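pls ignore typos typing on phone
S-adenosylmethionine + seq
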Amino acid sequence: MGSASASSSEAEDGPGSDPPARMTTVSRHYFGGDSSESDHALRVDIVENIEEDYGMFVWPCSVILAEYVWQQRSRFSSSKVVELGAGTSLPGLVAAKVGADVTLTDIAHNTEVLNNIRQICSLNNANCKVVGLTWGEWDEPVFDLHPDIILGADVLYDSAKFDDLFATVTFLLENSPGAVFITTYHNRSGHHLIEFLMVKWGLKCLKLLDGFSFLPSCKADSLQGNIQLVEIALETEKPK
Ligand SMILES: C[S@@+](CC[C@H](N)C(=O)[O-])C[C@H]1O[C@@H](n2cnc3c(N)ncnc32)[C@H](O)[C@@H]1O
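k done
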């Protein structure tokens, strides 16, 4: 993961004092060159709070998907991108930095995560839209989204949410001819899960990569697990 720079804050808690500030850190993520602090082409700073919920932390799947976006930047540079379950939004921010028109989304009622995304965009001078979008719910903003590329890092972590997630993904793919869904996930069941989801939702797998196969060693050294990247489209459609 990126090098974490301390910008932690904690206020004194006493009578009449302000409520305690939340413990936050800012992690730095480097892309290009040798992806080190001294040799890189892009730096993205992320505000994290590891005491808070899933969406306030940079998960390894996000580091891998962000690196993929960076390496494929010519493909992203003029595309419309929607990130689902964006959390701290590293992949979407890299897409925005290489020229994509980016909408970052997370659970509609989770104002803490959505506000953190806005703060991260401002910190990085990234002009992204931030929209509350809960999977499987059909609030107005979802109908206005016509992405070329849908991103999702570590959004396949709770099987109880797969149907809602794929209902949204399939809707967006149908609403956006030629679009693809690119997601990174922890592979805990061979490729059965992806095969099952493809059949169930009328989708096809265009690309399946070991997430570590394209990760620079300086990033791979600090990550663990079997993380796969899969690119998905509607069964009936050719990608752009
Ligand atoms: C494991 S975290 C991954 C966060 C980020 N993509 C990353 O990899 O660092 C899962 C994310 O999905 C979001 N999420 C969970 N359930 C959701 C739902 N029903 N609708 C939309 N987002 C959801 C969470 O708020 C969280 O940001």
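Confidence is low (pLDDT under 50) at residues 1-16. Residues 54-55, 58-59, 61-62, 85-88, 106-107, 110, 113, 134-135, 153-155, 157, 161, 164 surround S-adenosylmethionine (CB under 6 Å). more later
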